[in-house]
Amino acid sequence: MDFRFATEVRVRFAETDAQGVAHHAVYLVWFEVARIDYLARFRGGYPELRAEGIEALTTEAHVSYLAPARFDDRLTVLCACGELRGARFRFDYLVERNGERLAEGWSHHACVDAVTHRPTRVPAWLLEEIASAES
Amino acid sequence: MDFRFATEVRVRFAETDAQGVAHHAVYLVWFEVARIDYLARFRGGYPELRAEGIEALTTEAHVSYLAPARFDDRLTVLCACGELRGARFRFDYLVERNGERLAEGWSHHACVDAVTHRPTRVPAWLLEEIASAES
Amino acid sequence: MDFRFATEVRVRFAETDAQGVAHHAVYLVWFEVARIDYLARFRGGYPELRAEGIEALTTEAHVSYLAPARFDDRLTVLCACGELRGARFRFDYLVERNGERLAEGWSHHACVDAVTHRPTRVPAWLLEEIASAES
Amino acid sequence: MDFRFATEVRVRFAETDAQGVAHHAVYLVWFEVARIDYLARFRGGYPELRAEGIEALTTEAHVSYLAPARFDDRLTVLCACGELRGARFRFDYLVERNGERLAEGWSHHACVDAVTHRPTRVPAWLLEEIASAES
Lengths: 135, 135, 135, 135
What we know:
The structure is a homotetramer of 135-residue chains. By secondary structure, chain A is an alpha+beta fold.
């Protein structure tokens, strides 16, 4: 996987659990933070998508946990977008701490009309911006 | 405080933190669970309120933490509703584990119109049901 | 998949997001709730495992989202345990609302010594109880 | 209140609820983020406290919600520490968006020995650093 985008998160105390590590469900939240930061570079990003009456649903998510993250760790969440076809797209993620791989994952998404909840194409402006960013 | 209603929650692993106890922010979520269970006894409860175009906002919240709750603890969240005046009402809470007091708190709420976000009176049917439940 | 165990969760208001549905990360929390309820039938369950100095780590997780869950929905989380080999085991999940399939998923886990964090076999008592429950 | 420290948070999609605003319990998480950032300026901050065998418990928390925060809002969380006496201290908070006050609150804390859970004085180095930062 070739990642051209990264965002930073810091492990919050509220995100840790009684094993003393970041709880495994939180990675999906970090993936979302990365996804939104990724899209924020393009026009109005995800808020703009929502303003255009489009919601992006998560249809599938996967995480492989390689090593634990701990309280106050500064993490890099790399992400890339691809497989854009019609209403659907995919994100890949890698979570690192100082170059050490802690987790990797991916998610599938579908654009739907916010009112009818019917699938709707990813807007052309977003397709073009992502294609340009990933090429 | 005289509590006539109680609900049960069990401490989820995801709700614990690296101190090995339930994270302090989670109590506000449990209070909300208790509030919604409390209201569920009356007509359609909180979902009915929302269906009538009314949202109940939280305007103030307070928690005193007396003793920690731990993973898998079975907790009793007692709650009572009062001080209903116009659009406003108040809930009081007590969190217990086998009779031991772990936390107490309260929250203030205001009903608003879901569209205009203007304050709107607590519906008469709900006022009557709460008055009857608490008397 | 043949599920012989199920637990109930109710969608909390805190678990919804601005799309008006349960946030996709919450499913991993519900899977965990189901897993812990599943194990609770055997001796002391997951708390007993921890008391024996064993932590069960989540090494992989997957969710397919089929239809949204909404505030106050009463969900059934079915789960089954299998593929127990040495330190490792797997859980499968199905989330239903009145028989409608909302999500399915699975997770992989590994037992480690709580102190050394080295892999350690799933205790024999638990292997036997699970084998008996699933057969 | 005179705030000399501020930190930034951005409202995550996972932090919103079905009212389309940041869920009220999340403010306690943001307060904690601010508190930890505040302490991070002093020697090793909160992780250093924990490394010295001291846990800081939250004993009381209060939030007044003045106006809602929405998805992707960039918030400033101002905070100040005071009332340090023996094992106890207090934090005050103000959450702003572009100068608009969204919420204010405070929390009380107590230092305890991580092993015995008995109250233990706030370390002298931390007292001095906070006194110097707040004066």
